[in-house]
Specification:
Chain A: It holds the Pfam family Ni_hydr_CYTB. The structure holds two protein chains of two kinds. By secondary structure, chain A is mainly alpha-helical. Chain A has one domain: Fumarate Reductase Cytochrome B subunit (Up-down Bundle). Chain A is 68% helix and 2% strand. Chain A has a two-stranded antiparallel sheet. The two termini of chain A are 22 Å apart. Chain B is of the alpha+beta class. Chain B folds into two domains: 9-246, 2-Layer Sandwich (Alpha-Beta Plaits); 257-304, no CATH class. Helix content of chain B is 31%, strand content 17%. Chain B has a four-stranded mixed beta sheet with strand order 9-2-11-10. In chain B, strand 3 (77-85) and strand 4 form a beta hairpin. The longest helix of chain B has 22 residues, at 257-278. The mean pLDDT of chain B is 93. The chains are: A mainly alpha, B alpha+beta. At the A-B interface, helix 1, helix 2, helix 7, helix 9 and helix 10 of A face helix 3, helix 7, helix 8 and helix 9 of B.
Chain lengths: 219, 307
Amino acid sequence: MTRPERAFTRYTTANRVNHWINAGLFLLLVLSGLSFFHPYFFFLSNLFGSGQWARAAHPWFGVGLLVSWVGMFVQFWRNNFFNRDDAAWSKAIVSVVKNDDEHVPPVGRNNSGQKAVFWAMTLLIPTLFVSGLLIWQVYFGEATSIPMQRVAVLVHSLAAIAAILVWIVHVYAAIWIRGSVRSMTQGYVTPGWAWHHHRKWFYQLASGQRVKTEPRKNP
Amino acid sequence: MSDLQSQDYVRRSATTITPPAARSHEDQVAKLIDVSRCIGCKACQSACMEWNDLRPEIGHFEGSYENPADLGPSVWTLMKFAEYENEQGNLEWLIRKDGCMHCEDPGCLKACPAPGAIVQYANGIVDFISDKCIGCGYCVKGCPFDVPRISKVDHKAYKCTLCSDRVSVGLEPACVKACPTGAIMFGSKTDMTDWAGERIEDLKSRGFEKAGLYDPPEVGGTHVMYVLHHADKPSLYSGLPDKPRISPLVQAWKGAIKPLAVFGIAAAAIFGFFHWVTVGPNEVQEEDELEADRLLREMKEEEEKPS
């Protein structure tokens, strides 16, 4: 890794490994899940061997995702409380979208968009897990009543659509804001990146330089 | 049950194109079960097992004439026995042959995500093409009559085929063939409706004023119909639904939400792409790096300044 000496650590190795396990499972779930949702996407079930295999594998990916998300939650929840900066940032959302960054108020480690993604997934993944259990035919098909299954399957598909939309926003934002993908693959950002996108976080790290022996570790 | 090219599909699960329909001018068929003539002998159950080579596992006596206790992957039809005390205080033994109703608008087919796993032939029979079934259990949620059962062995859904294999070669279903009292009849839906009319008149003349035909319009009518002595209260017959309909939850899930979601997901992706093309990536500039370095240097100097 050709990490510049002046770089700031944004995501630790544990953060990144957990994130990519999460991402991989999410992708598998989207591919297999969409195949049951609309005939347009049924061909995706062939990626898993067949429709039967996709049906058998999907719930297990879901169990994996829940476990992985617990890890994500434990590692990131502290960084995602909304504060006053988020209100100001959210009001300037038009400037954010237009790359008009001079009119975007400074924020800390995460902006409110990132926080919204975190809390949306924190709500949606457990919703998907519980509703998914209720319609897991192999194990719970006979343990749950049919009216309950009907509610669960509707909730499951609505939550899945919401999660896919959140995921598209998340992935696009990572591509759009250059340097973000590297922060999640190699773990670091340049001081200029922190200064530009997360100014309060930059000051926090910069002032931490004076007191901490390991200045570039996460706060 | 099997994919029979001798009959054309009019409906095919999880399919957005029109199924082959050139040969769809077949008579609509129907099985008519005259509950008032049923003696509960279970010959139909035996015939069903015999013709379809079904051997359900032998269970336990549950204190009821119903045997086995429920429909299952290898129990496609089941005599259900209900004891009903009428207004005069007399006991009536209401026996109903339960099984797939072969709805004109089948909820199972609507819910099924596997292309071609559930089909409806031009004659109205709704059939499961087991080979294409993925075992998700969506048909169970779609069915207004609680009929499909998923096998624990092969994870496939099963139900009555209305002996589609026999019907396609001009035979009547096995249960019809076996019924000793003529309580089960089979023919074109019009003939069966006419015949039911005669039976109902007869029943009315014998004091069953509420006798009638069970052919629920909420599911577009069914290709298995009942003559009931108490047609005003179908639920007396071991919970036959009074107003069966595909659940509105299933309708929403398989109706509006499907295209809207696909549209929404596509729109989000396309919007992202055009944002990239119009507004473009947000890149950190050289000035940002210089500014950041200057600030870091300043703060360090501030720190090292002797106080």
